[in-house]
Each structure stands twice: as C-alpha cells, then as structure tokens.
Amino acid sequence: MHAQAPCLLIPPSPEPGTEAGVPGPAAPRDDAPPPPAAGATAEPAARAGHPSWTASLLVERPAAELRQDLSRFGVGVGLASLYGLALGARQGGMSFVHHAAGVPAAMVAVACLGVPALTIVLTLFDAPLDPSRVLSATARAAAATGLVLGGLAPAAALFIVTSGSQDTAALMGLLGLAVGGALGVRVFLRDLGAALRRDQSLLTRSGYTAALLGFAAFAVVLALRVWWEALPLLDGGNS
Question: Where in the sequence is the domain holding 150, given as residue range(s)?
Fold first, then answer.
C-alpha cells in the first residue's frame, strides 16, 4: 500500500494594495448618492455669513456699541431726508432744503426729548435698563423709520408732483410720514419691552406699560407738531 500524503490548505494571496488580515476598502454601491459638490455647500455658507445691508442695519446686536448705534441713527436720518426731498419736489427751490431738514427733525426731537424722559420715568420703577440699551433701541427705531421713508420717497414724489390739489398732496405726504413714524415707534417699544419683561411683578409691569404708552402718545404729538411747523407742504396748505 502507498502512503497517503497529507493535504495542505494554502490560503490565497492577498490582493495588491491590501495587507493580510486587514479588509480593503468597501466597493462603492450603485445606489449611493453622489458626494455634494464643493461649490454647492460653499455658496449657502457664504450667503449666510454675509447678510444684506438692510439686515445688518436692523439686526439686534447682543452688545451695544456706541459708534455703530450712532452710525445707524445717522443713516436713518439721512434716509428720512430723501423723503423730505420728495415732499419739496412740488414747490422746488428752497423747499427742498426745508423739507429735507424738517422730516428728520421730528426724529431728532423725539430722540432728544422723549427718549430721555421715558428713561427717567422707567428708572422710577427700577427698570432693568442701561443707557446703551436705550441708545440701541433708539438707533434701530430711527433706522427702521428711515428705511420706510426712503423707500416711499419715489412714490411720494410722483403723487405730490402730479396731484392737482395742495390739500391732497399734503395728505399723501402726511400719510407716508405716519407710516414711517408708526413703524419706528413700534420697533422702539418692542425692543424696550423685551428688556422689561424680566420683572414679573404685576404692579411694575403695569407701570412699564403706562410709561411706554405715554411715550408713544408723546412721540406722535411731538412729531406732528414739528412736521407741521417745519414742512411748508403741511402748513395748512397755505405755503
């Protein structure tokens, strides 16, 4: 009988580029989604990191900065002057100067007279406010008013120049001023109201509400008074 040779099992040699005992990279699946392109993700990220000029003008900043707040207030005053130029287009000449200075004059009067008085009243109720917070709210309100008035300036110029009646032109001009002023007061009250909601005392919140409503009424009366005296278009239709 012949001796039977033992059978040896020889493992297959590993594929090139892989080591023994280490699995190679998985083969790509046919149904796997393709990897996103670099430009597709970079473009939304770039857009999110660069807000528009209007958004940066009205954004609420976590920390108030004096220089930026003064800049925002100045931009609001400048945009409001554009609406004044539109109002002066009916009469021309020095009327451009009077209206361009008279429209933002009401904003400056409310900021210099009404806002400090409101701050003093709120301090009597131990309001959690500091001057930087009040200044930031005032700057945002002025910027919002200026954006509205600046946007309405072309339409206001068209209506005022083509209107056949002085009273109708004055009414249209006053309507635009009311819209811009109302939005500015709303932004201001909302910003201060958000800071005053920390106190849960009913009496204190009632005092805050009364002070804010009183300021709103004072701002409306003061702005109308300044506009009536400073704008020839609104002076009873006699100018």
Answer: 67-234
Gap between the Cα atoms of 96 and 115, Å rounded: 29
Specify the number of domains making up the chain.
1
Contact 80, 180 (CB under 8 A): yes
Residue 211, Cα to own-chain centre: how many angstroms?
Answer: 24
What gap in Å lies between CA 29 and CA 34, rounded to an integer? 10
Per-residue pLDDT of the chain (239 residues; tens, 9 = 90+): 444 444 444 445 555 544 444 455 555 555 555 555 554 444 444 444 556 767 776 777 655 678 888 899 999 999 999 999 999 998 888 889 999 999 999 999 999 999 999 999 888 877 777 888 889 899 999 999 999 999 999 999 999 988 888 888 889 999 999 999 999 999 999 988 877 766 556 667 777 888 899 999 999 999 999 999 999 888 744 54
3-state secondary structure 62-122: CCCCHHHHHHHHHHHHHHHHHHHHHHCCCCCCCHHHHHHHHHHHHHHHHHHHHHHHHHHHH
178 belongs to a structural domain: yes
Q: Identify whether 211 is part of a domain.
A: yes
> What DSSP state is assigned to residue 24?
-
Q: Would residue 47 count as lying in a domain?
A: no
- 223 assigned to some structural domain: yes
* Tokens matching residue 161: 């120049």
pTM as predicted: 0.72
In angstroms, the CA 12 to CA 182 distance is 84
CB 101 within 8 A of CB 84: yes
